[in-house]
Amino acid sequence: MSTDAPVMHASGMVDLAPEIYRQRLVVEGLVTAPISAEQIEDYLSQLSGVLDMVTILQPVTHQSDTYGWAGWIHWETSGAHFYGWDQPRLFFSVDIYTCKEFSARSAVDFTTDFFSATEVSYREF
């Protein structure tokens, strides 16, 4: 049994597997037009190249009658989820989770440019 104390992150979450690299990034933004399934698929496919991820499963999308589109891509080192709201406002949220290091700045810049976002907020953890 290990006598090492668990590592506590600033979020208050204990790192139960410090030997496994994990990186997370959430990017949210406001846009001026609804986001389509085709845009989500194209975005997730191109994001793979921007972050140098190996795609295992091409993007999958689904539309909610209430909120808008959602999409997901599976990478060899995890994946990304995309959510696009039509109501109550034109808004998107991207969750990127990987076990491979990537440039958060590149992801934020690419996302902002791809969707011509009028405002963007992000958090890496």
Distance between the termini: 29 Å
Q: Identify the CATH homologous superfamily.
A: S-adenosylmethionine decarboxylase
Low-confidence stretches: none
Helix content: 10-25%
The H/E string reads EEEHEEEEHE
Write out key terms for the chains shown.
8 strands; six-stranded antiparallel beta sheet; alpha+beta; single chain; two-stranded antiparallel ribbon; 125 residues; S-adenosylmethionine decarboxylase
Topology:
Elements: E1 7-8, E2 14-15, E3 23-30, H1 37-50, E4 55-63, E5 68-75, E6 78-85, E7 91-98, H2 104-114, E8 119-124
Antiparallel strand pairs: 1-2, 3-7, 3-8, 4-5, 5-6, 6-7
Give an overview in words:
The chain has 125 residues and is of the alpha+beta class. The chain has one domain: S-adenosylmethionine decarboxylase. Helix content is 20%, strand content 41%. The strands form two sheets. A six-stranded antiparallel β-sheet has the order 4-5-6-7-3-8, covered by helices on one side. Strand 1 and strand 2 form a beta hairpin. The two termini are 29 Å apart. The model has no long low-confidence stretch (mean pLDDT 92).
Give the structure's gist in a few sentences.
The chain has 125 residues and is of the alpha+beta class.
